[in-house]
Amino acid sequence: MDIFEKITALAKRRGFVYPGSEIYGGLAGTWDYGPLGVELKRNLKEEFWKFSVKSRDNIVGIDAAIIMNPKVWEASGHLASFSDPLVECKKCHHRFRADQLEDASKCPDCGGEFTEPKQFNLMVETYLGVVEGEKTKTYLRGEITQGVHVNFKNIISSTRVKLPFGVAQVGKAFRNEITPGGFTFRSREFEQMEIQFYVKPDEEESMKWFEYWKEERKKWYLSLGMREENLQFKKHDQLAHYARAAYDIEYNAGGEWKEMEGIHHRGDWDVKQHEAYSKQDMTYFDEETKERYLPWTIETSGGVDRAALFFLMDAYREEKVGEDERVVLKLHPKLAPYKAAVFPLLANKPQLVEYARKIYGDLKNEWMVAWDERGNIGKRYRAQDEAGTPFCITVDFDSLEKDDVTIRDRDLMTQERVKVTDIHKFIAEKMK
Ligand code: ATP
Predict the structure, then answer these.
(1) d(CA 303, ligand 1 centre) in Å
(2) Which CATH number goes with the domain that contains 267?
């Protein structure tokens, strides 16, 4: 089994991710996050928000609508660029205009086989209005980016931001991917987390910001425990006509480097396009220099689902423990769905259960905590290892006498006695 298959199986078994609409035979490219998956994803998004908005003075947040005026997509180029017949490489999924390929028999990037040329439209269409025949065709957003750019002026006039500043957003995007696959890697419905960072139109300064964000975003993945050897930057050799620089942060997914996030220097392309199509002034007034200009944008655009998938892969270990094998997810405590699990040593001893319930209830006020009283302790540890729970807290008969518990560490598999009054501090310390 390769790592994608292992993660797909574990995700279903433990309730991280299920195939979408499974009882009806599924729907290609859609996935449902289960009880553990939803926690992992929420933790990721919360960490992204802390990193981008909460911890900085120069970034604000936004939550724009998924359905936008269709003109937005004309302006952004999403409609026009999808009107030519394209082929897609079945291996690396890069798309090419069929008529512009020198050798149409194989992909120039990886040598893979092509799909038949098709009129691809990656935008997912939808219709608004109640009267048949009078409905307006519109689209589910293909990227979350445009919801920020169209609000550029609103943000400036309603807040006190000054260039350079950024706008962060997290939300759903939809694409009619031709070849969804790789578990959640290429889905038709997915979530993105982005920063649009607006800077002065200045070559040198903007490149400094570009380098800054490139490094910051890599550091973010590292700070949440991703292993450095599994990350690399990949420079885009072929840039979009408006782009000044572009890199991907790639993850080593079982020996294959895959895009996790893009860092793009987009010049003034987006705001300029919206100015042209909306006929609204999109310029920024610089109070220092008394000039008006269109800002340039540095964009960091990551996929929440791809990050979740790669964090799972990165955390996945099969380890020998004596004669046994265990599967463990060594997720950073900040990302782990449950921060701790509480066990009464024996389920049929009401005193133990009652004492453990109290601890469970107290911890639940702050964190997601699991409860388990089935089977032997070893089995409970294994189940929590697969869920990525960093700490298992067991209440035994000594606890009743001494007001302490055993805390077992997921990664080290060590056990230590901790006073009940110190449990909270113990976990909080490891969450840093
Ligand atoms: P790819 O080349 O893999 O199709 P892209 O270059 O089209 O990706 P962007 O448009 O730059 O991707 O989107 C930014 C991020 O959004 C990607 O780095 C990825 O993490 C995420 N993303 C894009 N498409 C999908 C998808 N179909 N499923 C899941 N995540 C996606």
Answers:
(1) 6
(2) 3.30.930.10
